[in-house]
Write a structure and sequence with these properties.
The protein is mainly beta. It is built from 2 helices and 11 strands, in the order αββββββββαβββ.
């Protein structure tokens, strides 16, 4: 009998709101252009790590699991309930004096209940996605980012 795993699943289902760790990686960001995650309407989160190769944003988001689809809540979750996303702002939207004024929309709708359960019930896990920092026009990536794939990763 394996009680540990079964008990974790029971606790997960009983508690319907969870704080889950999120990591967004911006790969090869445009040099000299600030990028920050938008929190609420006018707050910004700086990268937790940055280099020429990538920016990393680590934060927590609330998710309500009382319905069939996860409902993301809190200051980082933007947009209507059924199409929630996270903004990654660049240039003037990131508080920088810049020629660029852009926001990239990172969709949350493909995150599954199983992924959330894995992060909540397994220590040292995070939900992670990544995207290219430079768009087709040579500027910072903006608008709805295509191909967002969320995975459960080690912290």
């Amino acid at each position: 009998m394996s009680f540990g795993c079964e008990n974790d699943i029971i606790r997960f289902r009983r508690k319907m709101k969870h704080q889950i760790p999120i990591r967004i990686k911006v790969l090869r960001p445009l040099a000299g252009v600030a990028m920050m995650v938008q929190r609420g309407k006018d707050e910004l989160l700086q990268p937790s790590a940055k280099s020429a190769e990538q920016l990393i944003f680590d934060f927590e988001i609330t998710v309500d699991m009382t319905e069939a689809r996860p409902n993301f809540l809190g200051k980082y979750a933007q947009g209507p309930k059924d199409v929630r996303f996270i903004y990654v702002n660049s240039g003037t939207c990131a508080g920088q004096h810049s020629l660029w004024t852009r926001r990239a929309k990172i969709s949350l709708v493909t995150i599954t209940g199983d992924q959330i359960q894995a992060v909540v019930t397994t220590a040292g896990k995070v939900l992670q996605t990544e995207f290219e920092g430079i768009g087709r026009d040579g500027g910072p990536t903006c608008a709805s980012v295509k191909g967002i794939n969320w995975t459960v990763a080690a912290k």
